[in-house]
Amino acid sequence: MSIYRTTTTVKNNGTLTIEHVPFEPGEQVEVIVSRSSQALDMSKQYPLRGTPIRYTEPFESVAEEDWEVL
Fold it and tell me: Which domain of life does the protein's organism represent (predicted)?
């Protein structure tokens, strides 16, 4: 499967034009459309990034039944 990624702007009439695609005429393709700002905004993708982590009693022993979780 070949993937071709590009950006374009929606015209006033609500249409998109994608030119010079690397596919043969008549070849069936799948088209997925999304906003560019959503794809580039990594803060929404990883909401806890940069959040401080606090360990309460990090050196305390772990109960034997909790080892099964690991």
Answer: Bacteria
Distance from C-alpha of 66 to C-alpha of 32, rounded to nearest angstrom:
45
Quick one: tokens of 31?
């088209």
CA dihedral 31, 36, 37, 42 (to 10 degrees): 80
Are 23 and 4 a contacting pair, CB within 8 Å? yes
d(CA 7, CA 50): 30
Task: Give per-residue pLDDT as tens, 23-48.
Answer: 999 999 999 988 876 555 666 778 88
Tokens of 41: 């905004």
Contacts of 11 (CB under 8 A, 6+ apart): 17
